[in-house]
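Technical note accompanying the year-one report. For the benefit of new consortium partners, we illustrate the data format agreed upon in the data management plan: each record pairs a sequence with a structure-token string. No post-processing was applied to the example shown here.
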Amino acid sequence: MASSAPPAQVEAAQPRPPSGSVGSVGSVPAAAAEGHPAGAPTPPRAAAPADPSIELRAEILRLIGTASCRDDSQCRALPLGSKPCGGPEGYVAWSTATTDARQLEVLAARYKGAREARNQRLGLMSDCAVVPEPAVRCVPVADSTTGGRCQAVVARGGPVPATR
């Protein structure tokens, strides 16, 4: 009866090739050791499935753009993603003056769902630390006389480094 173990497990059970032999396991060509006929080309390995959350995050950041603002009332903090223990991975500042809130909400929900699915699929764990929502402010832009940019700020008043 043939083993139903995946090729990687079968290959791991095979003895290591002697030093100096290339592409073979003992006297059996490597392709045959993986369940392929001797001399047959080894089929390409399947690529890992693409992570849809990468493009969703990029789409969110494109929608937010520069987060231009005139005053603090136009600035918000958007929770992004999902940690394996729950809660957002982090936050990004955005402006109600330049971003469609409804579209942003839909993208953020899709991103959260994609990250939750990724966490579960990969069996990820996290530190379970709560990421607090930061304060956001309209920080003046040095070369602009018309306004500023929404940014998360630390308690002592300086801008938080960008999470982009």
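Partners are asked to follow this layout when depositing records. Residues 52-153 form one domain.
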